[in-house]
From TrEMBL:
It is a multi-pass membrane protein. The chain crosses the membrane at residues 9-27, 105-126, 138-163, 183-205, 240-262, 286-312. PROSITE patterns: ABC_TM1. InterPro entries: BPD_transp_1_N (IPR045621), MetI-like (IPR000515), MetI-like_sf (IPR035906). This is ABC transporter permease. Keywords: Cell membrane, Membrane, Transmembrane, Transmembrane helix, Transport. Belongs to the binding-protein-dependent transport system permease family. Gene3D superfamilies: MetI-like (1.10.3720.10). It comes from the Bacteria. Residues 99-305 form the ABC transmembrane type-1 domain. It holds the Pfam family BPD_transp_1. It comes from Porcincola intestinalis. It is found in: Cell membrane. GO terms for biological process: transmembrane transport.
Amino acid sequence: MASYITRKILSLIPMTLILSFMIYLGMDLMPGDAVDYLIPPDALSTMSQEQLEQMRESLGLNEPLVVRYVKWLGGLFHGNFGYSLQSGVPVSTLMKDYLPATLELTIAALLISSILGILLGVISAIRRGGALDQILSVFGMIGVAIPQFLLGLICIDIFALHMNVLPVGGRMAYQGQGFFQRLQYLIMPALVLGFSMTAGVMRYARSSMLDSMGKDYMKTARAKGIPEWRVNLVHGLRAALTPVVVLIGFRLPMLIGGAVVVEEVFQWPGIGTLFVKAVRSQNTPVVMMIGFFSVLLVLISSILVDILTAALDPRVKLS
């Protein structure tokens, strides 16, 4: 196991370099640069080309792409994540301010969707063909089809404006509030973000559970006189969880990317909102740091999924 994890970690290095360079190249291919967004349009029309070039030179934008990328990478290894081209604030400070909010939202959505999705999927498989199965299937189709921004607006209208039981948006009313004090702000965006994923996990868990229920080891367990609930939960569910864990493991990085819409709707101060603003203004250091973090999260998730799969299914051997 230790040698497998070591090899996987070493394989992350070239993959991370390639993906981060592709992100950097994509930013460079966008029209314009950060100077076009830093200077107001009326002031830009009065500045000479020499003045603009001096600004680009001071920001290091005139250097070749590869040189800029290598400098950024070298600074990363030394713990220097760069500075925002808009505000001059260190990127590490921005990540420290915005990342906890996004992790809080995505982890809450992941827990909600995983628990509900697996539970409803197992119930639907056990009650297949019945009325409950049909209702849950309709629920799953609605969850996959409805856009997150529309569901968010509906929830705001019902629970915030009409029923007045939850706040419209934001993360906290006052600075320094603890987690439980700001929990009411988390409920609605976490449920909206997790709703579509709940439907996907439920349908996947149902299909996997139905497949495991027809296996020979399930029939053998029943023939031994083991209670039906134990056959389904201990023998069937453990085997059915393997593909579901793979799905859930790769959903966490996708949730962080997908949180952009929910963060915009509920004015949640996370890195999704920061990323959109940075891309629009071509704030390369901020975009690169968020992209680098997302790439690492995806690659680390792949290792964790492999380990969890081996732990759940004894037939899977990590070599």
